[in-house]
Amino acid sequence: MMSSTNEEDPFLQVQAEVLSSLTQTRSLFTSYLRILSLSPSPSNPELLAARSDLLSSLTSLTEDLSDLSAAVSAVQSDPYKYGLEIEEVARRTRLVQEVGGEIEDMREELEKPSVLSANGNGNGGGKGKGLGISGGGIGEEGDEERRDYNAEFEHEQQLHMMAEQDDTLESVFHTVGNLRQQADHMGRELEEQVEMLDHVDGLADRVGGRLQTGLKSMGTVIRRNEEKWSGCCVWVLIFVLILLLVLVLVL
């Protein structure tokens, strides 16, 4: 049943594509952060390639998410018209919001200036020298901040995955509940049909008994009639023989 539902509902098909794209985008984002923490130079070819791939994936993911958002907006006014429950519409709305928020977080991280770009600022460099802060110290501080951000992002990803699993389990529980209700309904119908069959069998037995009794009665009547007509034929033959004897004697 669930597979047929997935084939009939376009939202679920696009949702599967969005979740798959989101998983790939997360992987690209993690790779981008790793490269950025190792070599934060804006001119690093590997960093530029990772940024380009991530931007392309985010753009495609945003387009798919806009389709999901439009589909949710279309059914929010009257969910029952499309055969949806209010809880399902709320789940879809929450999914769109969570994915959209995660996309915005990734874009904000991409728009942040790199550590070297910030250090390349003339005023910033002068202040660093005046305070006696070395470039290596600033780089280490930036690396630590990025490691903290990576850990926080991974934690958010885990929480998001747990929330998705909870939604999936809730959907499965709802589906199992529906199947259980259908099974109970089918069981009651089968019990009613069994009772009807028992009643029909009883009627058939009674009708069969009456038919057998009627057939026996008809057989008895037929045998009696046969015996009666046989006796009449015998007497007629005797009369004919006597008549022939009389005629022979007279002649």
TrEMBL record:
Coiled coil: none annotated. GO terms for biological process: Golgi vesicle transport; protein transport. Residues 121-139 have a biased composition (Gly residues). Keywords: Coiled coil, Golgi apparatus, Membrane, Protein transport, Transmembrane, Transmembrane helix, Transport. Residues 115-146 are annotated as: Disordered. Residues 159-221 form the T-SNARE coiled-coil homology domain. It is a single-pass type IV membrane protein. It is found in: Golgi apparatus membrane. Belongs to the syntaxin family. This is t-SNARE affecting a late Golgi compartment protein 1. It comes from Hyaloscypha variabilis (strain UAMH 11265 / GT02V1 / F). The lineage of its organism: Eukaryota, Fungi, Dikarya, Ascomycota, Pezizomycotina.
